[in-house]
Write a structure and sequence with these properties.
The chain has helices spanning 27-39, 53-58, 63-68, 82-93, 104-119, 126-133, 135-140, and strands at 18-22, 44-48, 71-73, 79-81. It has 7 helices and 4 strands; from the N terminus they run E-H-E-H-H-E-E-H-H-H-H. The protein is globular and about 35 Å long. The chain is an alpha+beta fold.
Length: 153
């Protein structure tokens, strides 16, 4: 998807802070959220979709869309979803190779693949997430929230 502008400029805001709304019952989503926040805790605020549903609805997102596709609000009040959100999240968190996500072929492939991966993330085996994130996975899911099946949420 694309960026949706919702509010004006406020000079007192941190120009690199973002708020990420994520599906806290998804192991991959929770692990990614906590992993990115741990890289830059002062500039990434995490809010589960259920906790931030009022803000998301006010911005025009349904709960279903917000639970399927990560949503981020930037320091200007603009909203980012799909790969636009991932690119902003990685850049804000300081991932060294995040600039590669903007290269033409990689950008196009990411834009094509993201909706498929997002819709099918519960089919990704936990061992894949464990290989990608290691210890971060267990830390993100300590509360057991990540173990709730999507049909039980």
């Amino acid at each position: 998807m694309t960026t949706i502008s919702k509010s004006g400029d406020d000079n007192s805001q941190n120009r690199s802070a973002i708020t990420m709304y994520y599906d806290d019952a998804c192991i991959l989503c929770s692990t990614e959220a906590y992993n990115m926040q741990s890289r830059n805790p002062n500039n990434i605020t995490l809010i589960s979709v259920d906790q931030g549903i009022d803000e998301l609805r006010a911005a025009g997102f349904s709960r279903t869309d917000a639970m399927t596709y990560l949503c981020v609000q930037d320091w200007y009040g603009s909203w980012h979803t799909h790969m636009d959100e991932v690119r902003l999240l990685y850049r804000t968190s300081g991932v060294k190779w995040s600039a590669l996500l903007y290269l033409p072929v990689i950008k196009q492939l990411g834009d094509l693949a993201y909706p498929y991966v997002a819709r099918n993330r519960y089919r990704i085996p936990n061992w894949v997430t464990r290989v990608l994130y290691g210890k971060s996975m267990t830390q993100a899911c300590e509360s057991g929230i990540c173990k709730i099946a999507p049909d039980k949420r």
